[in-house]
Amino acid sequence: MKRRSIIYFSITSILLIALATLASCASQPEKLPATYSVDVQKLDQQAILALQPNKDANPFVEPGSILRGKVNEFVVYRIDISNDHSRTIRIDSIMQDRDQNYIDAYFADRLVEYWDQNSTRTSTDKSTLTSYAKKISLIKKLVVPYATIPIKPGKTSYYLVFVGPNPIKRPAKAQIDVSTDDGEYNSFEFTLQ
Amino acid sequence: MKKLIVLLLALAMVGAVSAQAAAPAPAPALTFSGYLNTGFQYDTGTDLVSLYGAYAGQISRLRLNAAYTNGDFGVNFRYQSNDSATAPAVGQALVWGNLFNNMVTFKAGKLNDYTWATPYNSFGNFDGKTGIQVQVKPVAGLNFGVFVPVTAAGATPINTFKDMSIAGKYSAAGLADFLVNLNLGAAANELIGSVNVTAVKDLTAIVEADITDITDVANTLYLDEYLSYAMGDLSVGAYIDQTFGTPFAWSVTPEVDYVMGNVELYASFMYDSGNAWSFDPYVNYTLNAKSSVKTYASYDDTNTFTVGSSFVFNF
After folding, report:
1. Helices assigned H by DSSP within A26-167
2. N or C: which end of chain A has fewer CB within 10 A?
3. What angle do CA B182, B188, B191 make, to 5 degrees?
4. Chain A window 146-165: which residues touch B at a Cβ cutoff of 8 Å?
5. Which candidate, B216, B211, B188, places its Cα nearest to that of B118?
6. Residues of B with Cβ-Cβ distance to A148 under 8 angstroms
7. pLDDT in tens, A158-190
8. What is the pLDDT of residues A9-64, one digit of tens each?
9. Rounded Cα–Cα distance for residues B169 and B171 (Å)
């Protein structure tokens, strides 16, 4: 029985990963980009909700506050990379508000931790657990996991989230640098008005 | 031994390269947040109208959070009522710090940590537990360490360390997150594990296991699986669980969720191995960025009909 239980867990896990891997490969084979290129865009509210229309399950929608409107202000950027061969990229970012105060960019694990502390989920309400699981899952799939990331050939997108006090004092300036282990370098600057 | 040292040094160097660049820290900040979660419901089973919150079992909960952050160090507090909006108590009170370019994180006090908890049911979390936690992050994606429970009453060093938890998590980017958490302090040694598949953007796929006594896996294993697939505004999924032992028990809960702007329509149907079932729809309306109201109903195999509304106000 003990062995059967462990086998059951292992098989279920492997099947899920295989299913997910197959699903990710099932789409039309993508034509590889001829060259390496990077683009960075700031996401508006519509683009953020397109990622997950349910606000309770969307990690890019700030927790609300009846006193302040929002607990924090998130500024979300999408980094699109067209990659012609396997390489390692590095993402460095910085944001400063009007008073030169720094605003942190949260990588995936830190954003998960943020939501751990700002969640209203309760174990007796499955719907809150469901929303939370979807939220965490989306962070793990989309948000920059760490500064240095190995990427495969093809198109890849990562989301970078700056988390500041609400409201971030305008004008604020952000700079996002994407460099590679073979010398490519792109820098993007944004001004929040 | 030399090979081990070389390996550790190599890991440390890779980790140093992989760790987040030491960006300038924001100015020290003290922030407050919290929520009130309350509501009311009526059910035909008890013929009572009761205080209720978020479909959560007679809960009216007030929570206040405070966080002071100064670069790589900080302090967190949580003050929270019980589920009847009375007897508020300190739920979390801790200091934390990031050391060595964020390769090591420590927390001490009454903790708030979910780093090594499973993603759906949060098995293995240290929320509200008193003690010291050390997380080591030698390479990108890997996080392991220990939690040592420490109480105000104290315990001998041997008894303190024999009750610790040893845990680790590995995030394979674009594939899955893997988690193992061994709690030596449970009544019997408890082993928790999970796999969270991250390979497909629209698919949420989680498997969790909780063995509350590793010497009796056959009778103490709880398994659950959560699957959900999103198609724009619509998502469909199912929560399935199995409780091993005698008798073997299971339940399955398919769900459908549809979002129209600020309105969320949700319905699930639970059926278990004891032939119990319940149908649980709700409508959640986001009033604004600050608050939401949920109106729900439930009908089950005991012919109990429940209806209610819950309100969540964030501070």
Report:
1. 45-51, 108-117, 126-142
2. C
3. 25
4. 146-150, 164-165
5. B211
6. 17-18, 140
7. 999 999 998 999 999 999 999 999 999 999 999
8. 666 666 666 665 555 555 455 677 889 999 999 999 999 999 999 988 999 999 87
9. 7
